[in-house]
From TrEMBL:
Transmembrane segments: none annotated. Pfam families: Porin_O_P. This is OprO/OprP family phosphate-selective porin. The keyword Lyase does not apply. Residues 1-24 form the signal peptide. The keyword RNA-binding does not apply. It comes from Nannocystis pusilla. Keywords: Signal. InterPro entries: Porin_dom_sf (IPR023614), Porin_O/P (IPR010870).
Length: 435
């Protein structure tokens, strides 16, 4: 690469990589282009599925279902993808022990998510950008009519000149746990599991290196990164407590779209992805690694975080399994309570969690049946403030045009000391539309 070209790439990375959001994180695996005539669709695939999801020219632009409209210069040095999607969510919930003054039953109709995504490349196909903005009131943390959070969901820049060392910088999901790395618009159920929300590492500002296909084998990818550890509080100056992580995915049967839960391809060929990750969080200011609330005593936490997961697909059936482990230790802060006494030191949330989730398409239809069980358990060996929580549920999805237009219905029961209400039943109906 000539020095001037290299300088432009580095300058672009530094300018665009200072903040960050995304539709998918990490970017979807780079699959090889098929050669020869397309294979015949499986006999259990709905009719005209390929035509319904095909790309469509729009003047000089290109319409890509699920990815929006692409604009590009003739030499493709500059491209822009514009994509928008939203989720309208109805929730009916019953709590065994409702909050003071509240009824056991409640219901709501809300814009769960409303997103705008801009992505593409600049100057060269190897320098990319990704901007994911959010506009729903819940996403912006509205309180008393005032937003409390910036509309940035993810925002990052990538440099992909070398297959084995892709560089990504900005604000994005730490590539730690599979469920949180999957695109929000491609979830099999209305939301992630309780275990995922307890143990995952959320968005943070940082830098990572990765490879979508190590050595061109079509079976291995990796991620490694360093993050500030402050999540959405990246605008604050803090100490040098950083988060360090590494993840490896092994696909023994070849590459496939393992960061989308449903098996829309319905291939009779079995597909398997096994992942494992480790993260060390140094002097984190919140109760969960890059998540949770601030410690009442004003201190921090160091923690070791481990997860392993599995994604398996065949003929319209998908199976997701994951396991989490966290062990941390506190560094008290010494703040005083209202009476002038030292605030109690809250122990770290040490424990384990797991998810088992399955989906099955009814042959020759766009109907998918789903089920999930998830649990959180406090550690038995070290002190912990984590409480037990269990959930199980089932659902049904109808994909009018895959994830571009779908209707999801699920029911869940949660129970355990980790739930203030003791026991809660929840029914959710969600419509998602995007282009």
């Amino acid at each position: 690469m000539r020095p001037l070209v290299l300088l432009r790439c580095v300058a672009t990375l530094l300018v665009l990589g200072v903040a960050g959001p995304a539709w998918a994180n990490p970017p979807a695996p780079v699959l090889p282009e098929p050669s020869g005539p397309p294979p015949a669709p499986p006999p259990w695939m709905p009719r005209n599925e390929a035509q319904r999801t095909a790309e469509v020219p729009v003047g000089r632009a290109l319409w890509r279902p699920g990815r929006g409209i692409e604009l590009a210069t003739p030499n493709r040095r500059f491209t822009l993808n514009i994509n928008m999607w939203a989720q309208l969510l109805y929730t009916a919930r019953r709590e065994a022990i409702p909050a003071a003054g509240m009824e056991p039953w409640s219901n709501s109709l809300e814009f769960r998510r409303a997103r705008l995504i801009l992505s593409g490349n600049i100057f060269t196909p190897h320098v990319g950008y990704y901007v994911h903005l959010m506009f729903a009131p819940k996403d912006l943390g509205f309180k008393d009519g005032t937003p409390r959070r910036a509309p940035i969901f993810q925002w990052y820049t990538t440099w992909t000149r070398y297959r084995h060392v892709n560089l990504q910088a900005g604000f994005f999901f730490v590539p730690y746990a599979r469920q949180r790395m999957q695109p929000l618009a491609k979830l099999q159920m209305v939301d992630n599991s309780s275990a995922s929300y307890e143990f995952t590492l959320d968005q943070d500002i940082g830098v990572q290196v990765s490879s979508p296909d190590v050595a061109g084998l079509g079976k291995l990818r990796y991620f490694a990164g360093v993050f500030m550890g402050e999540g959405y509080e990246f605008y604050k100056a803090r100490d040098f407590g950083l988060t360090y992580m590494a993840r490896v995915d092994y696909l023994p049967l070849g590459m496939f779209d393992d960061y989308s839960e449903a098996d829309h391809e319905r291939s009779a060929r079995p597909r398997l992805s096994i992942g494992a990750a480790y993260a060390f969080s140094d002097r984190d200011h919140r109760t969960r690694a890059i998540g949770g609330t601030a410690f009442a005593d004003g201190g921090t936490m160091r923690s070791n975080n481990v997860t392993v997961d599995l994604m398996f697909k065949i003929a319209g059936m998908s199976l997701l399994l994951d396991f989490y482990w966290r062990q941390g230790w506190r560094l008290p802060g010494g703040l005083l309570d209202m009476s002038g006494m030292p605030a109690p030191v809250e122990t770290a949330r040490n424990g384990v969690g797991w998810t088992a989730q399955m989906g099955l398409f009814i042959p020759r239809t766009r109907v998918e049946l789903t089920a999930r069980s998830s649990g959180v358990r406090p550690s038995r060996r070290v002190d912990t403030s984590l409480a037990r929580l269990d959930e199980y549920g089932a659902g049904v999805n109808y994909y009018f045009y895959r994830h571009s237009l779908k209707l999801q219905l699920d029911y869940f029961r949660q129970w355990g000391p980790g739930l203030p209400a003791g026991v809660a039943d929840q029914l959710r109906l969600q419509l998602q539309a995007g282009f």
